Each structure stands twice: as structure tokens, then as C-alpha cells.
Amino acid sequence: MWFDSHTHLFECEPVEQTVARARAAGVGGLLVAGVDEATSEAAIELSERSDVWAAVGIHPNSSAGFAPGWMEAVARLASSPAAVAVGETGLDFYRDAAPRADQEAAFAAHIELSRSRDKALVVHTRASVGAALDMLEGSPPELVAVTRPAVEDDAL
Q1: How far apart, in whole angstroms, are the C-alpha atoms of residue 144 and residue 31?
Q2: Would you tell me which of 77, 114, 136, 142 could form a disulfide with 121, CB atoms 3.0–4.6 Å apart?
Q3: Residue 7 to residue 122: CA distance in whole angstroms
Q4: How far apart are CA 133 and CA 35, in angstroms?
Q5: For 129-139, how does the pLDDT look when each residue is reduced to its tens digit (9 = 90+)?
Q6: Which residues contact residue 106 at a Cβ distance below 8 angstroms, ignoring those fewer than 6 apart?
Q7: What DSSP character marks residue 155?
Q8: Considering the entire predicted model, what is its pTM?
Q9: 85 close to 53: Cβ distance less than 8 angstroms
Q10: How much is the average pLDDT of 88-104?
């Protein structure tokens, strides 16, 4: 049985048919990863009405201007029983959608939230694997990182 640890089903219509096709193909589990407050709420709603799990967070490319107050909504959503993970978060140095300092601050806040809530962490990296691993190095062994399969950074 397969498990897809990184979907954005809120972009699919109709969701129920997409989930059914995945199940028919042998995918036993689906994790829907939010990329901002609105899509994190959508992931929770999908989890509550469909047979999928939710992750809540702010994507590194959505972290421009990041302020700690942004995490209040993510923390509220992370307290939902439907949220099994924090993320999608991480570092993306390939695109210039958000300054590196904002991405690092957001990633650090997500790491702390996943620790405090004992939730898995969905990590996005692009041209930033080393920096992301450095930030995760100080994490306790209980932290579970779910990484998205991606093309090697050099190939991008």
C-alpha cells in the first residue's frame, strides 16, 4: 500500500473523485499540506469530510514579511484533531518569492510548533537541503520530518 505524504487536494475538483482514483491505484493514505492560512483551513475541512489527513503551515514561498503573529492561526489549526502534521514549511532558495531571513524565521517557528504539539513536520526544500538540515539538526529525536521527493537541487 502506498502513502502520498504531499498533496494539495484543495486544488483538485472534484476532490472525492481524485481521492477515489488514488485509492483505486493503491494509495492507502493521503496527506493534504496547506501552504498558507486559507489552504491550511481547506486541508482541515477536506480531512473532516474525506478520508485524508491534514498538515497546516506556511510555505517558504508564502513567508515574505513573516512575523511571529502569523503562527497564531497555524497553531490554532494545528490543534484540530484533523491536523496530523505542521507544514508545508521549509526553505526554498531557488525562487525569490520570500527573503531568506523570512523563510528561516518561519521554518524555525514551524519546527517549534511541531515540537510543542508533537506533530510531524512536512518539509519543503529547493536549493536549500543543507541549510534546512542545519536548522533541523538541533531538533529532538521525537521530531518526525516528512520530506517531499524532489529533483536534485542541481537539476533545477
Answers
A1: 14
A2: 114
A3: 11
A4: 20
A5: 999 999 998 77
A6: 58, 60, 63, 66, 70, 89, 98
A7: G
A8: 0.88
A9: yes
A10: 95
